[in-house]
Specification:
single chain; 331 residues; alpha/beta; Arc Repressor Mutant, subunit A; D-Maltodextrin-Binding Protein, domain 2; 2 domains; seven-stranded mixed sheet; two-stranded antiparallel sheet
Length: 331
């Protein structure tokens, strides 16, 4: 059995698609289908459930993918190190791809900066990032189609490891014409009775926000609910209500003047972001290197503008956080 066949199968498993695997290997879709058919015939089991869209691995297919994935990664690393004249297996030119599943609000701009830095350190590395609903992020990690996931309020499980990544301050997002902007900072109690645009009830971040408001004796008037931060921001831009959102997710809108970010005066509420990966098998060496880069103390916000510049006009940066206000698992 040839190594190329294992790599093609792994690409089918990661992409859940014959056509995408064909593009990744620069062969035809029919050739990919034949390779998978030959593997199934040789093993005497069905590896891919072709009746479902996107394609899903069978139980045997998932077990086979788990075993083949690390072999393929290790082979590509050894091959790359030899090609670069470094026969000790520690070559830095890596061709193996890294699959990342991330919640929408992590931010394309932030991740692009991390990808650029990693590729500069590891020439030839390929990183594919898919932005998904929080539940789908966890599913991608569990079924092995993502090397790791980026999610808020992470929580470890029997099968998943949750690695702390960073904490993001939650601020009041409102239209630039809102009276809060002139105040610079607001007390939590001032949200009482206001029209509020929130996350869907099935998201953990919604439960965390609800608990935070309840602990401060605040009852808002819910007017709209969405499953992602982009739709919430669009509702705020048309002055449909206010919302508690992570400050980094508002960078573009604050700089463009379409949304104001007003910090809380009397409370500290943060959203913890974390990295999820399976306990067994562990992420490939290449994926582990990318995780290490992500965890380096370097906040993308500060690269071209200080955090204070993201707040409503006239506000001074608040004091450093005293303690984490909320933890859990979700968006």
């Amino acid at each position: 059995m040839q190594f190329e066949a294992l790599k093609v199968f792994c690409d089918v498993a990661r992409n859940q698609s014959f056509s995408r695997a064909a593009d990744a290997n620069q062969i035809s879709q029919s050739a990919v289908s034949q390779i998978v058919n030959q593997l199934e015939k040789r093993l005497g089991v069905q590896l891919v459930d072709r009746s479902r869209r996107p394609l899903q691995l069978t139980h045997s297919g998932r077990a086979y993918f788990d075993g083949c994935k690390k072999l393929v990664e290790q082979y590509l690393e050894v091959e790359a190190s030899i090609r670069n004249g470094n026969g000790n297996g520690n070559g830095r030119h890596l061709d193996a791809s890294i699959r990342v599943a991330a919640i929408y609000s992590v931010g394309l701009r932030d991740m692009s900066q991390y990808v650029q830095r990693f590729v500069a350190q590891q020439p030839g590395a390929q990183i594919e990032i898919e932005y998904l609903h929080p539940d789908r992020v966890t599913e991608r990690v569990l079924d092995g189609t993502a090397d790791f996931g980026l999610i808020s309020f992470p929580e470890p499980t029997r099968k998943l490891v949750a690695v702390p990544w960073r904490e993001e301050e939650m601020v009041v997002a409102c239209a630039p014409s809102h009276p809060f902007v002139a105040e610079g900072r607001v007390k939590v109690a001032q949200l009482n009775g206001l029209k509020y645009v929130g996350f869907d009830r099935d998201l953990v971040i919604r439960r965390k926000v609800d608990r935070f408001l309840r602990d401060h004796g605040v009852a808002v008037q819910g007017v709209l609910e969405f499953d992602n931060v982009e739709n919430i921001k669009q509702a705020i831009e048309i002055n449909a209500g206010v919302a508690l959102l992570p400050l980094p997710a508002l960078q573009r809108e604050v700089r463009d003047g379409t949304i104001a970010a007003v910090p809380l005066r009397d409370a500290r509420f943060v959203r913890p972001l974390g990295i999820l990966h399976r306990r067994n098998p562990k992420p490939s060496p290449n994926a582990q290197r990318f995780i290490e880069l992500l965890r380096q103390p370097d906040d993308p916000i500060t690269e071209d503008q200080p955090v204070s510049g993201l707040y409503a006009a006239g506000h001074k940066t608040p004091p450093p956080p005293s303690k984490l206000a909320s933890r859990g698992n979700g968006k």
